[in-house]
C-alpha cells in the first residue's frame, strides 16, 4: 500500500508540474492602450520621430522553455503618427505607406536563437517574417522578454488577475527594402528607419 501511495504521489506531482509548465497564450491587444512602437528617421535636413499604437496579435510563451516562443504582432498602419500635419498626410499616402492598399504591418516569429534566461527575463534573437507594404522579408531582431506572474491586476486595466509578458525590442530596417518611396527624399527621410517596440501581452486567469 505504501508503494502504491508513493507512486500515486509521484504521478500527481509530475502532473501538477506539467500543468504549471504549460505554454501560456498572451494577447497583445492592450486594454490600457499604451502598447506602442516608436519609429525614427535621421536625415541630413530633418530628424523625424513618430509613434504607433494600433497593435494586436498574440504570443505563446512557456516560462520553463522560453526558446520555444512563437507568435505574431500586427500593426494598424493608420495608427502611425508624426507631429507635423503635412507629414501625417503624406505618411498614409500611396508613395509612402499606402495605408488604404496595405492596412497592416506584421511580424511573425518563426524561431529564437542565442537564448539567455535569467530568472523571469529572457534575452534572445527572434527570427521571423516582417511584412511591410506587401513585401515580406526574413529578419532577426534582438528582444527582451519578461514574464510577470500574476501581475495583470497590479498593472491596471483589468478586473481579473493574470500573467503578463513584457516584450522590448529595438532594431532598424531600410525603407528601400519594402518599396517605401525608395531612393526619394533621402535628405529629409533617411533610408534607415529605427524601430523600438514596447508591448505587454496579457493572459487573464479564468473567472
Please tell me about this protein's structure.
The chain is mainly beta. Strands 1-4-5-6-7-8-9-10-2-3 form a 10-stranded antiparallel β-sheet, with no helix packed on it. The protein has one domain: Lipid/polyisoprenoid-binding, YceI-like (Lipocalin), CATH 2.40.128.110.
Q: What secondary-structure arrangement, pairings included, does this model have?
A:
Layout: H1 2-20, E1 24-27, E2 36-42, E3 47-52, E4 55-61, E5 70-76, H2 85-91, E6 104-118, E7 121-132, E8 135-148, H3 152-155, E9 162-174, E10 192-204
Antiparallel strand pairs: 1-4, 2-3, 2-10, 4-5, 5-6, 6-7, 7-8, 8-9, 9-10
The helix/strand order is: HEEEEEHEEEHEE
Number of strands: 10
Strand content: over 45%
CATH 4th-level superfamily: Lipid/polyisoprenoid-binding, YceI-like
- Main sheet summary: 10 strands, antiparallel
Mean pLDDT: 91
The end-to-end distance, rounded to whole angstroms, is 39 Å
Instruction: State the helical fraction.
Output: 10-25%
Order of the strands making up the biggest sheet = 1-4-5-6-7-8-9-10-2-3
Task: Give the structural class.
Answer: mainly beta
Overall CATH class: Mainly Beta
Q: Number of helical segments?
A: 3
What is the name of the CATH architecture? Beta Barrel
Radius of gyration: 21 Å
Shape: globular
- Total count of domains: 1
CATH fold-level name: Lipocalin
**pLDDT < 50 stretches:** 6-19
